[in-house]
């Protein structure tokens, strides 16, 4: 699924963490200056890969929503 908006806020961060734990593919579309912290990205990326999921952070809306079932 894809979240579009401020990547630093609690909603985006909680969704990314939950998706990583569940092994889901999570896309976050936001301007680069609103990306989550590097620490959070690293942790969620590691957890997602361990559980069969993927985390994608991009500022390209077309790339971010591609193949998403929920936006």
Topology record:
Blueprint: E1 2-4, H1 10-22, E2 25-29, H2 38-50, E3 54-58, H3 61-65
Parallel strand pairs: 1-2, 2-3
Oligomer: single chain
**C-alpha geometry:** globular
Number of strands: 3
CATH class: Alpha Beta
Main sheet overview? 3 strands, parallel
Q: Give the N-to-C terminal Cα separation.
A: 6 Å
Query: Are there runs of 5+ residues with pLDDT below 50, and where?
Result: none
Count of alpha and pi helical runs: 3
Element pattern in H and E: EHEHEH
Secondary-structure-based class equals alpha/beta
Rounded radius of gyration (Å): 11 Å
Domains (count):
1
Level of helix content?
40-55%
- The main sheet orders its strands as 1-2-3
Question: Could you say what the CATH topology is called?
Answer: Rossmann fold
The CATH architecture designation is 3-Layer(aba) Sandwich
Q: If you average the pLDDT, what whole number results?
A: 97
Task: Please characterize this protein's 3D structure.
The structure is a single chain. The protein is of the alpha/beta class and 71 residues long. The protein has a single domain (2-65), classed as Aspartate/ornithine carbamoyltransferase (Rossmann fold). 44% of the residues lie in helices and 18% in strands. It is built from three helices and three strands. Strands 1-2-3 form a three-stranded parallel beta sheet.
């Amino acid at each position: 699924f894809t979240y579009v908006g401020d990547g630093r806020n609690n909603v985006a961060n909680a969704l990314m963490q939950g998706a990583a734990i569940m092994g889901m593919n999570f896309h976050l579309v936001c301007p680069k200056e609103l990306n989550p912290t590097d620490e959070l990205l690293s942790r969620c990326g590691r957890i997602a890969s361990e559980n069969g999921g993927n985390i994608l952070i991009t500022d390209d809306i077309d790339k971010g929503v591609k193949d998403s079932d929920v936006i």
